[in-house]
Amino acid sequence: MKIALGCDHGGYELKEDLKNYLEEQGHEVVDYGTNSPEMVDYPDIVFPLAKDVANGKCEKGIICCGTGVGVSIAANKVYGIRAANCHDTFSARASREHNDANILTLGGRVIGKGLAQEIVQVWLKSEFIEGRHLRRINKISDYEKQ
């Protein structure tokens, strides 16, 4: 799978760990930066990454910051993105099965590397189950078009 990966300074260490983890799992990783722990403005990373997920250049995206909240808010401003901030495997699974999340956000200052890898693994393996959930996703998409 082709995965867009990005972070700000607060998520840099976690992004680097996840990059290695994802490549070891056989995924193609497109790294949007940042490439150091020096301070950056996360929208500068998030918007290009989210646009590439929305237009299909990458199948899914993972973005890290200190809490995962800021990057989630920014990513959700991009048309066609459903970013979910998850800090446990249940939320990760539900965000895919019920919400068809196409970007996962994680907090590098909130969770450890081992848990982050578990969350990523569950999130990537979970599939959207459609049914009643598709009706809700369609309502969100219709609202976005207004």
From TrEMBL:
PANTHER family in UniProt: RIBOSE 5-PHOSPHATE ISOMERASE, RIBOSE 5-PHOSPHATE ISOMERASE-RELATED
Record EC number: 5.3.1.-
Active-site feature positions: 65, 98
Family according to the record: Belongs to the LacAB/RpiB family.
Protein name: Sugar phosphate isomerase YwlF
Entry annotated with the keyword Isomerase: yes
Residues reported in the UniProt entry to bind D-ribulose 5-phosphate: 8-9, 66-70, 99, 109, 132, 136
Keywords: Isomerase
Isomerase found in the keyword field: yes
Top-level EC class as recorded in UniProt: isomerase
GO molecular function annotations of the record: intramolecular oxidoreductase activity, interconverting aldoses and ketoses
Gene3D superfamilies registered for this protein in UniProt: Sugar-phosphate isomerase, RpiB/LacA/LacB
Natural source organism: Atribacter laminatus
SUPFAM superfamilies, per the entry: Ribose/Galactose isomerase RpiB/AlsB (SSF89623)
GO biological process: carbohydrate metabolic process
